[in-house]
Amino acid sequence: MSAAATLPPGITVLERGWLSSNNVLFDEGHSVSVVDTGYGTHAEQTVALIRHAARGKPLTRIVNTHLHSDHVGGNAALRAAFDAQVLIPPGLAEAVCRWDEEALSYAPTGQYCPRFAYDALLAPGQMLRLGTLDWLAVAAPGHDPHMVVLYNDDERILLSADALWENGFGAIFPELEGESGFTEQRAVLEWIAQTRPRLVIPGHGAPFTDVEAALARAFSRLEALAADPERNARHVARVLVKFWLLQVRETTLPALLAHLVPTRYVKLIHARYFPTQTPSALLERALMELVASGAAERRGERVIDRG
Ligand SMILES: [Zn+2]
């Protein structure tokens, strides 16, 4: 079944490559709103895609589920192009005001995000009208302590951000910092299982309706990671390498190491989980694992994004 066919009228999902989050557009009659805006290097493409999909209507609101670089990278360009308002979850509002790239995770991940400002907060428990439907903002920590997901009970649609994808969920970053993340992610998955959405519009990948199967995969993956935190740390290392490859497409091993070795998350993974290896060795291992899974290719010193 085509999941797109089950979307109510007025909702358009611009499914992007994995570097950028999806952009979910809501037609509001004379204007449109969007949830999440992709990665910074794709910002101009995001503006063009939204301009096209909006068919002449102005974008008036940008809503962010969380502030990871791949969900807010188009905020600045869209705000400039359309004079749209930006709504963010409250957790990192202060950090946005002073543009603290450390707290906002752009520095520790070695990722890029054009500076943006926000106009209003979207707190868990708040209702938000998007298009013709009312959406409840629900706290969804685990992947990101400050993330919210959006749920409409009439149509039973969940905008799940990085809490649930058709195949998995976003990396559990807080555990790296010595904070709790697995427990929170489990609670979020349990809430989704109880809520039984008919349709999930994830932050990455196509909308899907077989939510039960996606939850089963997510629960088993979560239990595997929680049982073996080193596995979670290795997964985050792969995510950092893959994300950088998605951005640069092709690089060399020395250049990749020069970019990622100084980042705080790599230092944390090294110090906390693999102190007997060098940071370069753990990144090379992550790259080898990506190559083995077909997500990257190595030709001598050259490293190429794949998959
Ligand atoms: Zn994320």
Distance between the first and last residues' Cα? 24 Å
Shape: globular
Q: Which molecules other than protein and nucleic acid are bound?
A: zinc ion
Identify the CATH class of the largest domain: Alpha Beta
Specify the biggest β-sheet. Answer: 6 strands, mixed
Proper CATH architecture of the largest domain? 4-Layer Sandwich
Q: Describe it for me?
A:
It is a single chain. The chain is of the alpha/beta class and 307 residues long. The chain has two domains: 3-174 and 203-222, Metallo-beta-lactamase, Chain A (4-Layer Sandwich), CATH 3.60.15; 229-305, Arc Repressor Mutant, subunit A (Orthogonal Bundle). It is 38% helix and 20% strand. It is built from eleven helices and 14 strands. The chain has helices spanning 43-54, 69-72, 75-82, 93-97, 106-109, 182-195, 211-227, 229-248, 253-260, 264-273, 279-292; strands at residues 11-14, 23-27, 32-35, 59-63, 85-88, 120-121, 127-130, 133-139, 148-152, 157-161, 199-202, 250-252, 296-299, 302-305. A six-stranded mixed beta sheet has the order 1-2-3-4-5-6. A five-stranded mixed beta sheet has the order 7-8-9-10-11, with no helix packed on it. Strand 9 (148-152) and strand 10 form a beta hairpin. Helix 6 packs antiparallel against helix 7 (211-227) and helix 8 (229-248) packs antiparallel against helix 10. The longest helix has 20 residues, at 229-248. It is globular, with a radius of gyration of 19 Å. The chain starts with 10 loop residues before the first strand and ends with a strand. The model has no long low-confidence stretch (mean pLDDT 96). Zinc ion binds next to loops.
